[in-house]
Design brief:
Elements lengths: L6 H10 L3 H22 L4 H14 L10 H20 L13 H5 L4 H4 L3 H12 L2 H12 L4 H8 L3 H23 L9 H17 L6
Helix pairs in contact: 1-2, 2-3, 2-4, 3-4, 4-9, 7-10, 8-10, 9-10
């Protein structure tokens, strides 16, 4: 297999030419990532948001111009759908500031009990919900969906330097929030490596867990 071949783009071209199997393969490849993206933020509504996102992708498949990766394009659409959900259900159509608002602020509740079993994972999930939406977005895409900083920048339509700055701040805030929410004193400050390991372990747990509707 050619390591430089863009498999997503090849599947998209075939889909546009009428190959439905290619389209199903392409969407199935990214289904888990988009589902995880919504499940973390909106566990009670993630299936509806997932369906809405893929409906838009199907309807607008010809608009993708390959100026970024197809995966980046998918998460850009998912971000729009998520922000619309916030405006409709938590801001009643009004504006909100992703830099100043967190999901904990907007929803007024914690999500961790719906998703994680381990105590340290519940604390980490609660900490994520208390990050600003801007910071949570870059953590999700960089650590969980394994986009590069450049790809995250393309997905959220911001400079790469801004993404890297938000990541640094988000990791520091996660360590502080984890400690405060758990009301515990650590013998040492959590390192970036600690946070990264916990995020990957939490991702594995969420992937194994049943859906909210199960």
């Amino acid at each position: 297999m050619d390591p430089h071949k863009d498999v997503d783009l090849e599947l998209l071209v075939r889909w546009r030419e009428g190959d439905r199997n290619a389209g199903e393969t392409l969407l199935s490849k990214h289904f888990g990532g988009i589902r995880r993206y919504f499940r973390l933020k909106f566990p009670d509504a993630h299936e509806d948001l997932l369906q809405e996102t893929f409906a838009r992708i199907v309807a607008n498949r010809d608009e993708f111009r390959a100026e970024s990766s197809f995966k980046t394009y998918l998460f850009r659409i998912a971000r729009y759908v998520g922000n619309e959900h916030i405006r409709k259900h938590y801001r009643h159509g009004g504006d909100f500031s992703p830099a100043d608002s967190s999901l904990a602020d907007l929803t007024g509740r914690r999500q961790s009990s719906l998703l994680a079993e381990r105590e340290d994972h519940r604390l980490l999930l609660d900490a994520l919900q208390h990050l600003s939406l801007e910071q949570q977005e870059v953590v999700d895409l960089y650590y969980w969906e394994q986009l590069t900083a450049k790809q995250v920048a393309e997905a959220i339509e911001a400079p790469e330097s801004t993404v890297r700055g938000r990541l640094r701040l988000a990791v520091r805030h996660l360590a502080r929030l984890h400690r405060e929410l758990g009301e515990q004193e650590h013998s040492r400050e959590l390192s970036d490596g600690d946070i990264e390991q916990w995020l990957h372990a939490l991702r594995r747990e969420l992937d194994r867990a049943p859906t909210a509707s199960s």
